[in-house]
Amino acid sequence: MIALLRYDVLKSARDGSLAAFFLLPMLIPVFALLGGTFVHGFHYPLTMEVRWSPAQNAAMIGTVASVVCPVFALMPAFWALRAEIETRSVAALAMAARPVTIVTTVVGFATLISVAAWIGSIAWIGLLTTALPNGLPLLAAKVAAGALAAASIGVLAVSISPQPAMIVAALIACMPLLVGFEKSKGALGLLLPVVFAVICTAVAGIFVERRCAA
Fold first, then answer.
1. What CA–CA distance (Å, rounded) separates 14 from 209?
2. Is the separation of the CB atoms in 201 and 108 below 8 Å?
3. 173 vs 42: CA distance, rounded Å
4. Phi, psi of 168 (to 5 degrees)
5. Gyration radius from the chain CA atoms
6. pLDDT tens by residue, 178-191
7. Most-buried pick from 26, 45, 146, 165 (CB within 10 A)?
């Protein structure tokens, strides 16, 4: 699995997608704060709503980051092995690891990118608003679970069809799930995305195995 993870990292770094998948979700909350601030005239700390306190602004933009970053996890999950699945060269990888291990590694890779982007966005929120969202440990757990679910949707989508249009279908499937998950509370809200991710990853492994056998 470590070798597969290294392969995903090196391949994504070489084609530039790693930086894009990390920076874009991290900077969306920053751009939102910049836009909200310039509407009312530039000032520091930055705000989305000038009448709100820094803590209220941080909480609101933190919610945005906590939805955006997990959603973006499906993109590296879809893209990491898209070319290999499209050309069926994924069969060469399957000679060294089981298909379910391959897709599990991709899900983990995409989840790590998403969580790292969220950490970066929270750091920017703290710097720009002089405050941080409340309940960061729980928020971090929710982001990780949400990213895991989104990444599993991405890898399932590419295992069904590597055509880029499939990413649109994956986004449509992902948005209601993550918006509802972000509003959930309690341990059940963390458990359900993990169970969902396990199921999607297992099904994706079956599809990849069939592609290798074809």
1. 27
2. no
3. 38
4. -65, -45
5. 18
6. 666 666 666 666 78
7. 146
